[in-house]
Design goal:
- By secondary structure, the protein is of the alpha+beta class.
- It is about 50% helix and about 20% strand.
- A three-stranded antiparallel β-sheet has the order 3-5-4. A three-stranded antiparallel β-sheet has the order 6-8-7.
- The N and C termini lie far apart (about 60 Å).
Length: about 150
């Protein structure tokens, strides 16, 4: 781990001192490294040479795009590999998957409800919701089915 990465990690994590030893929060450390590891669902990867050949990009352009778009990366030995699916989406070759969830703000705008009304429906009808970071996501399919106009 580089010194700059360690500095970022120390700023983001909780620490405590105990008899001149620094103790780190395990959940914060695990969360940091979880973000850095790509999903196991990704099975296809581009090497830098393949990207240069297929898209005609320079090394600096590849690194800039990867950084800007947040494309998952793994290292195999000394070779960096980038997610084929995410790279193709960033270049406009493939279509991104449609979202499966609404944020609270998106659902409020789409259905013209207040936050309290929306939470009432979510709680009453037991609509699936997940919390990631500071955002709460609601199942798009379940909410659309519930609030769809009636059919005669």
């Amino acid at each position: 781990m580089l010194l700059s990465q360690m500095l970022k990690l120390t700023i983001q994590t909780k620490e405590a001192r105990s008899q001149s030893k620094t103790l780190w929060s395990k959940s914060h450390i695990d969360r940091y490294f979880e973000k850095r590891n790509p999903s196991e669902e990704i099975t296809e990867w581009y090497t830098v040479a393949e990207i240069q050949e297929k898209f005609g990009m320079s090394l600096s352009a590849i690194y800039c795009l990867v950084s800007k778009e947040g494309i998952p990366k793994i290292k195999v030995g000394i070779e960096a590999r980038y997610s084929k699916k995410h790279f193709d989406i960033a270049k406009g070759i493939a279509e991104p998957e449609p979202p499966t969830e609404y944020t609270i703000a998106e659902a409020m705008v789409k259905f013209g409800m207040t936050r309290d009304q929306l939470y009432h429906y979510v709680k009453t009808y037991k609509i699936t919701r997940t919390k990631r970071g500071k955002f709460t996501y609601i199942s798009r399919k379940e909410l659309d089915d519930l609030l769809a106009p009636p059919t005669i």
